[in-house]
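Recap from last week: sequence in, structure out.
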Amino acid sequence: MPLRTYDAFAKPIDGIRERSVSGGFITLLASITAALLFLSQIILYIQVDTRHSMHLAESVPSALFNKSPQNILSGHQIPLRVHVTFPHLPCKALDYSQDGNSESTGKFEHYHSAPYTFTKRVPTVIDYKKAAVSGFKDVNTARKQGCTLVGTIKVPRVGGTMSISVSPEAWRRATSILSFGVDLGKDQDMFHGKLPNVTHYVHDITFGDPFPPGSNPLKGVHHVMDNGSGVALANVAVKLVPTTYKRTIYSAKETYQASVSRHIVQPETLAAQRSTLLPGLMLTYDFTPLAVRHVESRENWLVFLSSLVGIVGGVFVTVGLVSGCLVNSAQAVAKKMD
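Predicted structure tokens:
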């Protein structure tokens, strides 16, 4: 038996083909339908399916009993980036600390050595314009009375505190002049007989790698001390949610989402509580025990390709069957009428 008897794709002879206007219209309609379905399938393939899941975060060893950061595994530390401007506080009156290790006592440099450390400098023109609410004429002169703290340190993945405030020496001197009229300093009073104004602008405070789809609540924040004296404490509490971010063609990235609550503590409250905290910014952070996994996925390209082939072939086969049924029905009716 010859092989051509098994040919499932029998080819019609050109001489017996019949082309018609209705057939052309049906072909055009089928082509438009196939093109639209083809385009919609491509759009669906481009779109990303996002899935969220929660699980217990990885536990990390505490650095409580370690005497130096070299004893802490680098994998259990994350970078803390800080960029804050105090427009009315000179750099020599500014102090900062992390977990009680302050710059004024020299302990901060002991735990955080270069290149992971903070730097105090005179604000740039852009920094000062963002930080100063009003009241300056010559920005180049006014910005020399302020201070910008910028830098990156490594902190362990456990709860902690970071403060940027008036230095203890500057605070004692200012309160001594105001209360007793006695100047404990040797140089000129930088506050001119007034209390230091700790109004500040948080350009950016970031823990680890930021979560790309989200926004940073610690970016572009103004803490204005408008109580007349300019003395207050901006108390900021941060909850960090470890988040694994996985995109379609990229490797997984460990990021952190931040939930922030803040309030301004007035000096009367600090005095009533006999608090030892100095005016400025107090940042308290902690890590949640639950972690989030954010995964973006896309349909397998083989499934996508088979869908495209099925759409194009299915449209023309379906239209061919329907048109064939209609033509045969019309011919049968015409024969009965004859």
